[in-house]
From TrEMBL:
InterPro entries in the record: TPR-like_helical_dom_sf, TPR_rpt
Sequence ranges of the TPR repeats: 172-205
Organism: Pacificibacter marinus
Keywords for this protein: TPR repeat
Gene expressing this chain: ycf3
The name this protein goes by in its record: Photosystem I assembly protein Ycf3
Domain of life: Bacteria
Length: 285
């Protein structure tokens, strides 16, 4: 009788342990699946932000070969192609993304961005027209402003630029674009203000510094603005100002600025030297 009881208890314990093992195995499996999803998501982010663009393209291409319907892999490939400078293929990749049933307004904005990079302004405008007004993002309004600029719709451009500036904590790039827009319209004072503001947000943005000098030169202001600059940047800005002066007909001032640029540059400033020689040859002739 005792043996029967022991066998019964042993079998019961075995069944209980088997049940525990099965449950534990299931929990471990679910946990591993969860970790894999997290790791995959993190890897996607790493490939997009830190990896070499071409490596990123290869990674997402491989991922799509085994998971062709995963929209996050499609997005990753499209973004990586833009980063790699392969714009025509990026446009095709973004079109593939927006045709996916899970595509979002952000995807249409990103396609518009790629289309602008490819020079297809009308296509970009058509994409943005599909985005509802409730999708209010910095990138959307920055692109809207650029398209309005291309259509020379200055009132809309200014409105979109202003909205974009208010939607980001790093508006240096859009302020620089806005300033360039003002400069192309001949509004040099407004352009100068916008370039100067852009530099306050990003003191290393040389494009804005160069544009600031151009906007001042167009107004006959041939002194360098008070902004942070390296010695090399100072030489380059003096050269830009010198060319601006020559273009405005102030050749003597321009030659002086170019000479100063050559003397200021820490290395041999070949471009400035050639320009100065050309100016002197024209004067001689």
């Amino acid at each position: 009788m005792r043996k029967v009881i022991m066998i019964s208890l042993t079998l019961t314990g075995a069944v209980f342990l088997a049940g525990c093992d099965k449950s534990a195995f299931g929990d471990v499996k679910r946990s591993q699946t969860s970790v894999n999803v997290i790791d995959e998501s993190n890897l996607n982010d790493v490939m997009l932000s830190a990896a070499d663009p071409n490596e990123s393209v290869s990674y997402f291409t491989r991922a799509l070969s085994t998971n062709p319907d995963r929209i996050e892999f499609k997005r990753g490939l499209a973004k990586s192609l833009v980063r790699a400078g392969n714009i025509s293929t990026a446009v095709s990749a973004w079109k593939d993304v927006v045709s996916h049933p899970d595509a979002t307004s952000t995807d249409h904005v990103d396609l518009a961005d790629a289309l602008i990079r490819s020079g297809d302004w009308k296509g970009a405008e058509a994409q943005l027209n599909q985005v509802p007004p409730t999708h209010e993002t910095y990138k959307r309004y920055r692109l809207e402003a650029m398209i309005a600029d291309s259509n020379q719709n200055w009132q809309k451009a200014d409105s979109f630029y202003e909205t974009a500036v208010g939607l980001t904590t790093k508006p240096s790039s859009v302020l620089n674009n806005w300033g360039y827009s003002k400069m192309t319209r001949g509004e040099f004072t407004a352009a100068e203000r916008l370039f100067a503001e852009a530099i306050t947000y990003d003191p290393k943005l040389f494009t804005a510094k160069n544009n600031l000098v151009l906007s001042r030169g167009a107004q006959g202001k041939y002194d360098l603005p008070v902004v942070t600059m390296t010695q090399t940047e100072r030489a380059q800005l003096l050269y830009t100002m010198g060319l601006s002066a020559v273009k405005s007909g102030d050749v003597t001032i321009g030659k002086g600025l170019i000479k100063e640029a050559i003397d200021t540059h820490p290395q041999h400033f070949e471009t400035a030297v050639r320009s100065l020689r050309a100016l002197e040859d024209n004067v001689t002739n």
